[in-house]
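Go through the following before class.
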Amino acid sequence: MAKKITNRDQDYSQWYLDVVKEAKLADHSPVRGSMVIRPNGFALWENMKQVLDRMFKETGHENAYFPLFIPKSFLSKEAQHVEGFAKECAVVTHSRLKSVDGGVEVDPESRLEEELIVRPTSETIIWDSYRNWIQSYRDLPILINQWANVVRWEMRTRLFLRTMEFLWQEGHTAHATKEEAVEEAVRMLEVYRVFAEEYMAMPVKTGVKSESERFAGAIDTYCIEALMQDGKALQAGTSHFLGQNFAKAFDVQFQDVDGEHKYVWATSWGVSTRLVGGLIMTHSDDQGLVLPPRIAPVQVVIVPIFRNDEEKSTVFEYAGSIMDELEQTGASIKFDDRENHKPGWKFAQHEAEGVPVRIAVGPRDVQKNNLEIARRDTREKEIVSREGIAEQIPALLETIQDSLFEAAKNRMESRTQSVDTYDEFKQAIKGGGFIYAHWDGSAETEAKIKEETKATIRCIPLDEGEPGVCMVTGEPSARRVLFAQAY
């Protein structure tokens, strides 16, 4: 299998696209800006979805589903929200086509009385339902999650990272008090942090967005920010405290224990298939995809090596016994018994697709009761005894999981620094990475920094910081904030 992946240091953007292609994760579709998610990519998303869904349900949430189409008038009810999404909305204006000269065209007589918006996010249509579901404090809290697709009309796209249509989950909750809603938003941020670090092996910084970077219609937006290998940041998940904005827009009130009518408090939170892009850029190398074992669709692949039917029979029996034993551990195992490709080609393919552990067995291994184990993360190979393999492989998978996290964490920490002056900042940002610096809190200063350096405030850390002076204006600053250039 010829090497088809561009070196990262040669062309990082092309390297990323090459990894997506060679790992068979996704393809461009005939519709500009959207993608076809191939089985390998969808299996990875399904594993992410399965873990997150369990974590959501453990924190009391239930799944539901709301319509893809949203009446245009709904988006007009919350001014900040509609302003934030107005330029990204796909609009349905007609309900049917008609045949014309062997083709089709829009039937002008089918124009809708009210245009429908293909959901860019579901706050408006969900809060219309909540108005019917909530009458009393006994109806609260409502903790709903939806797995769905959304459309945001993007012109500059990149597979997984930014596409016109993408898959995601969106949580939408309603609470009796502000305190409960804020607690929920912070709780879900922690769920995302745990998932990113313990399953994706992707270290993240957490905090709250600046006013200019927060979600349209939110009071506060909490986020997890990851650092990719090229030194750019990736917003990997967000959780929003929406206050009472949507409750007031849709007149969602409840009668409290004293009989007084009050507006409910709201949150929303979500992650998307963008996580797949973040995973690629956190761990992968010039040979292809590298996957953390805890979310890898295939954790171990067994490749038999033989020259004739007699060897095939012996090797297959030996490999089959290994597979049976490993399946008892709960590991996801694949036996690559394809005969139309040579072992070397298979090795390269499984390496490109990121399988964490590869086991090769041949006639000599059968004779000596051995097997060859190759780690995808370090590309190290080792001949080990067949005995005790059921204990060794699960331990190795955990070692790989931990090693990937530590490597990514060390890389992030080595590319995180603090600066005091704007000149230091402008020099440091050229090298990429996270930069902590003081900011005076003004939108004007934030815009100036973005225009001159292409760096944005990724988050304002939640812990108390040390006061100082803004690196640009010299005005007082309550604490350092986190800057980076970002995807």
In short: The domain at 12-69+123-283 is CATH 3.30.930.10 (BirA Bifunctional Protein; domain 2).
